[in-house]
Amino acid sequence: MSMKSNTNISTDQLALLALKTHVNSDLLSTNWSTATSICNWIGVTCGSRQQRVTALHLFGINLSGTIPPHLGNLSFFILLDIRNNNFYGALPIELAKLHRLKSLWLDNNNFNGEIPSWFGSISKLQNLSLSGKKFIGVIPSSLCSLSKLELLYLDYNNLQGQIPVAIRNLSKGTIPKEIKNLTMLKILYLGINDFQGPIPTNIVNLTLLEFLDFSSNNLTGHGGMISKYSNPHIKQPIVSSLRIICTTVT
Fold first, then answer.
1. What is the DSSP string of 113-179?
2. CA distances from 130 to 108, 115, 154, 156 (A)
3. Of 55, 65, 72, whose CA–CA distance to 24 is shortest?
4. Domains of the chain, with CATH numbers?
5. Which of 81, 7, 84, 82 is nearest to 51 (CA)?
6. What is the sign, positive or negative, of the torsion defined by CA atoms of 43, 47, 50, 51?
C-alpha cells in the first residue's frame, strides 16, 4: 500500500475517531478500536477498490452526541444514516465538502436550528431525509438546486412560512430555473409543519413525482385542484400515479 493511500486512510480514521469522541456509546467505545481496520468497524462500509470509507450505517443504535466537523474530511463518503438516535446541536458546515454524498438520513434526532442552506451545494444528493420535529424556520431555496434529488422528507418539523418561491411559482404555469432542476424528485413530504399560502398546483410538472404530502399545514386550496391537471409530456395525467394527502388544508 502506498504512502498516499495510508495517509488517506488515516484521514478517514481520524474523522471516525472524532465522531467516537463526540458521542456516548459503549458499542463504539469497544468496537471502534485502532487495533483493527476501520473497514471492519461496526456500521462502516469501505469501497472495495480504494479501501476508503464510503458509508456509515448507524441506524437506531442509541448514540447520543454531536456531529464533529471532521466528518467533512471523508472525501469518498456517499451515505450517512444516523436515524433514530439522539444527535443534537447544529450540523457542521464542513459536511458541505462531501461532494460525493448521495444519501443523508438524519430523521428522529434532536438537531436544532434551521435547515442549512449549504445542503444545496451537495450536488450529487439524491435522498435527503430530515423528519423529526426539530428543524425550524423556512425551507431554504438552495434545495431547489439539487438536480439529482429524488426523495425529500421534511415532515414532522416546525417549519413555517410559504413553500419556497422556486416551488410555489409553478402555479403561474412556468417552471423557473431553480425548480426545473428537481425533475428527478419522486417523493416529497412536507406534512405536519406550519406552511402557509397556496398549494402549488402545477407541481405536477415534476413528472417523476409519485408521492406528495402537504397534510396538516395552513395551506389554501385542496388536493382536488391538483388532480385537474395533466402533464403534457406523458400520455396519462400524472395523478394516475400520484397519491395526494391534503387532509387538513382549507
1. SBPPGGGGG-TT--EEE--SS--EE---GGGGG-TT--EEE--SSEEEEESPHHHHGGGGT---HHH
2. 8, 9, 5, 9
3. 65
4. 113-245 (3.80.10.10)
5. 7
6. positive
Residue (of 116, 72, 73, 74) closest to 94 by Cα position: 72
Name the one residue in this structure whose C-alpha cell is 458521542. 23
Closest CA to 74 of 30, 22, 9: 9
Dihedral (CA of 185, 186, 192, 195) sign:
positive
> Model's pTM, two decimal places?
0.70
Give pLDDT tens digits for 164-201. Answer: 555 543 333 222 334 445 667 776 766 666 666 666 65
Half-sphere exposure of 239 (CA within 13 A, CB side): 12
